[in-house]
Amino acid sequence: MSQHNVSININGTEHSHDVDARLLLVHYIRENCDLTGTHIGCDSTSCGACTVIVDGRAIKSCTMFAVQASGKEVETIEGVADGGLHPIQEGFWEMHGLQCGYCTPGMIMCAKTLLEKNPDPTEEEIRWGISGNLCRCTGYNKIVEAIQYAAEKINQPEAASA
Amino acid sequence: MIPGKFDYYAPTSVDEAIDMLVTHGSEAKILAGGQSLIPAMRYRLAVPEVLIDINGLTDLNYLKQVNGHLAIGAMCREVDLEESDVVQSQYHLLADAAEVIADPLVRNQATVGGNIAHADPANDHPAVMLAYDATVVAKGPSGERTIPIDSFFTDLFESALSEQELLTEIRIPTPGANSGGAYVKLERKVGDYAIGAVAVQLTLAADGTVAAARIGLTNVYYMPMRATGAEAALIGQDPSDEAVLEAAGIAAAAECDPSADLRGSAAYKRDVIRTLAKRAITKAVERAR
Ligand SMILES: Cc1cc2nc3c(=O)[nH]c(=O)nc-3n(C[C@H](O)[C@H](O)[C@H](O)COP(=O)(O)OP(=O)(O)OC[C@H]3O[C@@H](n4cnc5c(N)ncnc54)[C@H](O)[C@@H]3O)c2cc1C
Ligand code: FES
Ligand code: FES
User: Fold this and answer.
1) Closest to B6 (Cβ–Cβ): which among A21, A43, A64?
2) Fewest beta carbons less than 10 Å away: which of A107, B53, B105, B277?
3) Domain residue spans of chain A
4) Contact A67 B105 (CB under 8 A)
C-alpha cells in the first residue's frame, strides 16, 4: 500500500504526516491531529456527524481519503469560534439547538456554508440545507431556530444581541 | 470500517490517467467523487488494488451549452447542476433530478460522470440520461469515442466503458420547441435512493398530441431501463386524456421488474411506478405547453 506525506491546513495551522493511502480524512483529523470535535456517527456516509469544510464546501470527512485533502484548507468545529462564540454556536446555545450534542459539530459546519451561500435563508431552505445531517434527539425544530437566530445575528448584529 | 489496502495515484491530465488505467488494468479503479466507491470500499464490497484519483483533472469540471447540446464534464459536481442557470432554465428534467440526488453534503462531492459510470440502477442520472437520449464520451488509449446512452448500460454496475477508458463528458441534446421534461421520485426519506422514480422527456405536436417521448425508470430493474411500452402508449395520443395517462402508467408498471426489499414489495413498487409515470408525464406536458 502506498504511503503519502500529506500537508493539510486545518483551521489555519499546517499539519503534516506520513499516512497510508487508505486513511480516511475523519481519522486523520481525530487521530493524527487530535481534533476530536469532528464525530463519526454512522461510518457509512449517511449521517453527517463527520461534516467538515474543505476548500469552502461542506463534505462528509468519512468519505474522503486524507491524501485527497493534501494541500487543501480544512475547517473543523475547533476553528469556528473566533474570540467568542460564532453566531451559529451562540444560536445553538440560545435556542437549545442541541441535546446530546453528537450531531452538533456537523450541523454547525453545514450551517456555516449554508449561511455563507445564502445569508437570509427561509425555513424551508434551512431544512433542505441540513438534510444531510441527522439528529436523533432534537426533532430539528430547535436546530432550525438556532440557524435562524444566527442568520439574523449575522445580518443585523445589533438587533439580535439587543 | 477501514477500506482494504491500495496504491494511490493522482494523475494531472486525462492522458496520464489513461496511461495508468492501461498499466494497472483490472486492478485499478477510478476515484471521482468517491461517494459510491468509498462506502463500497469500507464495506469491502470493492477492494481495488489501485486507485486513480481524477479529482485533479479540473479540466473535466465544466458545464457548457455548445451547438445543440449541453456538455457536462465528467467531474462536474451535482451541486454545480443545482447552481447552474442554464440547467434550471432549459433542462427541467435534469434540474428536477439534481436536487433529489442524495443530500447536500454528498452533492458537494459527487460527480455526474461517477453517477453514470457506476451504472447503478438505483442512481438517478441513468434514467434521466436515457430519457434525454444523451451521449457519453469516453477516452481510452486509442482515442475518443461516443456511446449512445441506449447502449451504455449493459448490466448491474456494468457499462460499455472498457477497463482502459475514462468517461470524459455527457452530452444532452438541447430540448427543442414544445418540449418538456420532468423527474418524479419517491423516497423513504430525504437523501435516500428512490423507491422508484420516473424520468420523462417529450415533445408535443401542434395538435397537442405527443410527437415524441422517452421515459427512463430508476431502481425497478436489475439495470437502468427505458420504459418503451409506456413511450409507445403515449406517442400519437392526447396526454390530457386520463385513459392515455393510465395506459402509459400501466405499461411502465408491467415492463419494470422491481425486487422486494426494505423499500417495499415488488407489487407496491410497480404501483409506485404506475402513479409516478402519470405524474411525471403530466408535469412534462405542462412544461412543454
Ligand atoms: C448517503 C448517500 C445517498 C445517495 N443517494 C443517491 C441518490 O439518491 N441518487 C443517486 O443517483 N445517487 C445517490 N448516491 C450516490 C452518489 O450520487 C454517488 O456519488 C454517485 O453514484 C457516484 O459518483 P461519484 O463521483 O461519487 O463516483 P465514485 O464513487 O468516485 O465512483 C463510482 C464508480 O464509477 C467509476 N467512475 C467514476 N468516475 C468515472 C469516470 N469519469 N470514468 C470511468 N469510471 C468512473 C469509479 O471507478 C467507481 O467504480 C448516494 C450516495 C450516498 C453516500
Ligand atoms: S460518519 Fe460520516 S456520514 Fe456518518
Ligand atoms: S443533539 Fe443528539 S443527535 Fe443531535
Assistant:
1) A21
2) B53
3) 3-79, 87-155
4) no
CATH tag, B7-53: 3.30.43.10
B34 CA distance to ligand 1 centroid (A)? 6
The values of phi and psi at residue A33, to 5°, are -105, 0
| Ligand 3 atom nearest to A49, measured from its CA | 3
List the domain boundaries for chain B. 7-53, 58-173, 179-288
CA distance to A1, A54, B38, per residue, from A19 (Å): 10, 19, 17
Expressed in angstroms and rounded, the spacing between residue A39 Cα and the centre of ligand 2 is 8
A87-155: CATH number: 1.10.150.120
B265-282 pLDDT, tens digit each: 999 999 999 999 999 999
Q: How far apart are CA B68 and CA B86, in angstroms?
A: 13
ipTM of the assembly?
0.96
User: Cβ contacts (< 8 Å) between B39 and chain A: which residues?
Assistant: 44-45, 63
The amino acid sitting at B21 is: L
Rg (CA), chain B: 19
Total Cβ atoms within 10 A of residue B257: 12
Residue B36 Cα: closest atom of ligand 1: 29
Q: How far apart are CA A62 and CA A50, in angstroms?
A: 6
**CATH architecture of structural domain A3-79:** Roll (3.10)
CATH architecture of residue range(s) B179-288? 2-Layer Sandwich (3.30)
Alpha carbon of B78 to ligand 1 centroid (Å): 10
Q: For the domain B58-173, what is the CATH code? A: 3.30.465.10
pTM: 0.96
Taking a contact as any Cβ pair under 8 Å apart, which residues of chain B between 29 and 68 contact chain A? Answer: 31, 34-35, 38-39, 41-43, 51, 53, 55
Instruction: Check CB contact under 8 Å for A68 and B53.
Output: yes
AA letter at B79: V
Picking from B210, B212, B211, B253, the residue whose alpha carbon sits closest to that of residue B230 is B253
Asked if residue B18 has its Cβ within 6 Å of ligand 1, the reply is: no
The answer to whether residue A64 neighbours chain B at the CB level (below 8 Å) is yes
pLDDT in tens, A31-84: 999 999 999 999 999 999 999 999 999 999 999 999 999 999 999 999 999 899
In order, the DSSP letters of B25-37 are GGGEEEESS-TTH
- CB-based contact (8 Å) between A63 and chain B? yes
Residues of B in contact with A63 (CB under 8 A): 34-35, 38-39, 106, 109
**Closest CB to A1 among B6, B79, B104:** B6
